[in-house]
Amino acid sequence: MNAFLCPLLLIQNVTSPLAIFWRWDVQQMPMV
User: Fold this and answer.
1) Residues 12, 18, 24, 28: is their CA dihedral positive or negative?
2) Which terminal residue of the chain has fewer beta carbons within 10 Å of its beta carbon, N or C?
3) How many angstroms separate the CA atoms of 24 and 18, rounded?
C-alpha cells in the first residue's frame, strides 16, 4: 500500500504546481 501511495503523492506534488502554471499560462494566452 505504502509503496503504491508514495509515488502517487510524489506525482501529485509535482503535477500540482505544473497544473497551476499551465492554467495561468492558458489564461495569459488569447483564445484561438
Assistant:
1) negative
2) C
3) 10
